[in-house]
Amino acid sequence: MRSLGKRIELLKVIAHSVRIKILEELTKGVKCVTDFEEFLDISQPNVSQHLSLLRRYGVIDYYIDGRLRCYFLRDPIVTDIIRLLDKDYKEELPAPACCPVTKKGKYPGKRRR
Amino acid sequence: MRSLGKRIELLKVIAHSVRIKILEELTKGVKCVTDFEEFLDISQPNVSQHLSLLRRYGVIDYYIDGRLRCYFLRDPIVTDIIRLLDKDYKEELPAPACCPVTKKGKYPGKRRR
DNA sequence: TTGATATATAAAAATATAAGAATATTTGAA
DNA sequence: TTCAAATATTCTTATATTTTTATATATCAA
């Protein structure tokens, strides 16, 4: 299993608006670079850079079809992350109501706010 | 519901090794700044900066107890992200086996790798 | 009051990330 | 062969993030 450090790195790599769009698109199926260019409003080299970053981290991979590179998802965490981003969190967590929990503090002692 | 952009920003804020450690610790209960200093190997101002960033994004909040600030979790996405980071993904996603899916490509045509 | 403790803030320095521009590589087709 | 298409790579510049250093604020205790 990947170390926590590695998994956080991965999360960082995925947490980018362009890359999320790429990944969302890939959940629907194989795509080549030109396909991405059409709906991402960025240059071809920039698309390639994002794709190559994602590949370097093992998030995606590709097959070569002539002069096309057909990209596809490889890391199963992607679907979970996308689901998480789509999830609707309505409530905040309840503020802790009582009791000293910190080592030094006597919270909720003279609680000010 | 937050926009996708906002949710990606939030993911970016959370995807940092120090901040993940802070959040993991907070899932166990309320903590003040000095508590964090003990197990994060960084300076006090740096701890404060990470805490204030997390607070700015509504991930955490605090109560004041005398001269202590007792921090606690506020955004429920945190528990989900931590669960995700702990999850053990054994298998890669299966490589797509067939069929032209890209607009231009005839994948798996002359598939090279 | 005064000093010490807990914490925050601001400015600067160090570092990382992103995007842009130019160019290279590979392959299929003429 | 040679050309064009599809894509990648490299270098540069711009920008953002992170850490460090110094200093400030608030509160408690003597």
Molecular structure report:
Two copies of one chain form a homodimer. Chain A is of the alpha+beta class and 113 residues long. Chain A has one domain (4-86): Arc Repressor Mutant, subunit A (Orthogonal Bundle). The first copy, chain A, is 46% helix and 12% strand. Chain A has five helices and three strands; from the N terminus they run ααβααββα. Chain A has a three-stranded antiparallel sheet. In chain A, a hairpin with a 2-residue loop joins β2 and β3. In chain A, α3 crosses α4. At the A-B interface, α1, β1, β2, β3 and α5 of A face α1, β1, β2 and α5 of B. The structure holds a DNA duplex (30 and 30 nucleotides).
Which value, in Å, is the CA radius of gyration of chain A?
Answer: 21 Å
What is the molecular shape of chain A? elongated
Distance between the termini of chain A: 42 Å
The percent of residues in helical segments of chain A reads: 40-55%
> What's the architecture of chain A in CATH terms?
Orthogonal Bundle
Instruction: Using the coordinates above, name the CATH class of chain A.
Output: Mainly Alpha
Q: What structural class do you assign from the helix and strand content of chain A?
A: alpha+beta
Q: How many domains in all of chain A?
A: 1
Figure out the total of helices of chain A. Answer: 5
Tally of DSSP β-strands of chain A: 3
The helix-strand sequence of chain A is HHEHHEEH
Reading side by side through the largest sheet of chain A, how are the strands ordered?
A: 1-3-2
**What's the oligomerization state?**
homodimer
- Mean pLDDT across the residues of chain A is 88
Indicate the proportion of strand residues of chain A. Answer: 5-15%
